[in-house]
Amino acid sequence: MKKIYTLHIMFLLACGLISGQSRTEIEEQRKKNLEEIGFVDNLLSSTSKEKIASISALKILGNKLNLRESVIKGMGDEISLLNERIELNRLAIDMMEEDLQTLRREYSEAIISSYKSKKINPELVYILSAKDFNQGYKRVKYLQQVSKIRRNESELIAELITEIEDSKERLENDLERISDLQHRELLQKNLLQGEQARKQKMVKSLSAKEKQLKRDLDEKKKIAKKLEKELARIIEEERRKSSVTALTPEQKLVGDNFLDNRGKLPWPVERGIITAHFGTHQHPILKYITEKNDGVDITCNGKTKARSIFKGEVTAITAIEGANMTVIIKHGKYFSVYHNLVNVKVKKGDLVETKQEIGDIFPDPKDNNSSTIKFMIFEQKFLDPELWIAKI
User: Fold this and answer.
1) Do the domain assignments include residue 392?
2) CATH of the domain at 248
3) What digits encode the pLDDT tens for the residues 273-290?
4) Does residue 261 share a domain with residue 176?
5) Distances in Å between the alpha carbon of 147 and those of 77, 150, 328?
6) Domain around 381
7) pLDDT tens digits along 329-362
8) Which pLDDT belongs to residue 124?
9) Model pTM?
10) DSSP per-residue letters across 322-383
């Protein structure tokens, strides 16, 4: 009986531990998402004041919607985990209460049997009626063992009652937590509906400016081609140098360390959100047009400093008409590219450290003064920066 009870308790505790670990992860992610939503709200506040609908603002709002949906999903996941734990708790309570009834019945029967035995054959008589000393000693040990078992059964019953009460308390706490989560989930869904309505209004406003959007996109593509051409020239020049002069041991070590830190590198800004991902994507308004991005666009709030993601050497600083300054930093055989800068604080040949400031990101007056940096990583071809920088 005791073995069965122990298994029940271990089962309950294991279920509670697994659920608790999962809930902690979900709560931590929700906290991060809500903090990120607060940051996005600050980015959108200028748009609200200026009443200017822009592609950048639309992308920022889209980012906020994704975060809000993630928060709602996390709440739903936590509710599901709590419901599973409630069912397991109820099952464990039923099992323990059944064990408790059995224990009480067996204990009661043992007490009655002992009482009857004492009336008929008192313990002292039972011991003294032994044939010899050895048998008498064994009878004493037997009576002591019986007494110990009864004490253990009594303690086991008390322990089981305490565990049942604790399980019922956990059950009530989980039910209260679910009620609170459902209320907060409803609030988040209402906020999501309002934000979706705002997005639709913004899309409608921007759709009325289709011709202007096409002109802006064409200009953006021209700048992208100029940047791509300039980068190709600079990188090809570096390749020619490398073919003549091999990387020094220090440069090779930097490149190896850069690779080792894949997925853990700091962002090129202290705080920002990705408003354009790597690869080819459909235009958010012009549905029949796609955009190709060789890096990521990171939008920041107000005046923002750009910083090196890793130690290396400034290979080039170039200016492209209509696109401000671009800084290229070499990390062994890898290159990191920082585009749309002003007030550049480094020069070609400088050795920079991780997170060292290299310039300011241009605040665009035509886009509510938002600051957006185009960030790229290159090694024989352009790589997806999101696979290299740390997750928020």
Assistant:
1) no
2) 2.70.70.10
3) 898 899 988 887 777 788
4) no
5) 51, 5, 84
6) 210-387
7) 999 889 999 999 999 999 999 999 999 999 999 9
8) 47
9) 0.69
10) TS-EEEEEEETTEEEEEEEEES----TT-EE-TT-EEEEEPEEGGGTTEEEEEEEEESSSEE
